[in-house]
């Protein structure tokens, strides 16, 4: 029993070492599709104005990103994009109201439109004019 456990642990460690080495060779990309890493929200935080850009960074190779802006009642704006930054179009900006707590998130999507990573909810509000 101990020998079998030792062999299993040794195999797991060896496999982890191979995957790590492949990531180094592949420039940090996950060699089995996608990549190692995560998606991270950069801005905004706090109160926003019409010129604010929603910006994120990702270590994942995603085909598309889905920006979602919502309040406690649900989505206010959703946009799919290949970019890593979005400025709200005027029609979306007009839907936002000062004094309301909103959140935004970005989901990385693969070529099959499957979610592979997400920033999680990032709170923000709208500046009073």
Task: Provide a descriptive summary of the structure in words.
Helix content is 22%, strand content 39%. The protein has 129 residues and is α+β, with helices and mostly antiparallel strands. It folds into two domains: 1-36; 39-126, Sandwich (Immunoglobulin-like). Strands 2, 4, 5, 7, 8 and 9 form a six-stranded mixed β-sheet that branches. Strands 1-3-6 form a three-stranded antiparallel β-sheet, with no helix packed on it. The termini are far apart. Residues 15-37 have low confidence and may be disordered.
Give the low-pLDDT segments: 15-37
Category by helix and strand content? alpha+beta
Spatial extent as radius of gyration: 20 Å
Domain module count: 2
Overall geometric form: elongated
By CATH reckoning, the class of the largest domain would read: Mainly Beta
What is the strand tally? 9
CATH topology of the largest domain: Immunoglobulin-like
Helix content class: 10-25%
DSSP strand content: 35-45%
Mean pLDDT over all positions: 78
Question: How far is the N terminus from the C terminus?
Answer: 71 Å
Q: Based on the structure given, which CATH architecture of the largest domain is correct?
A: Sandwich
Q: Count the helices. How many?
A: 2
Largest sheet: 6 strands, mixed
CATH H-tier superfamily of the largest domain:
Immunoglobulins
Order of SSEs? HEEEEEEHEEE
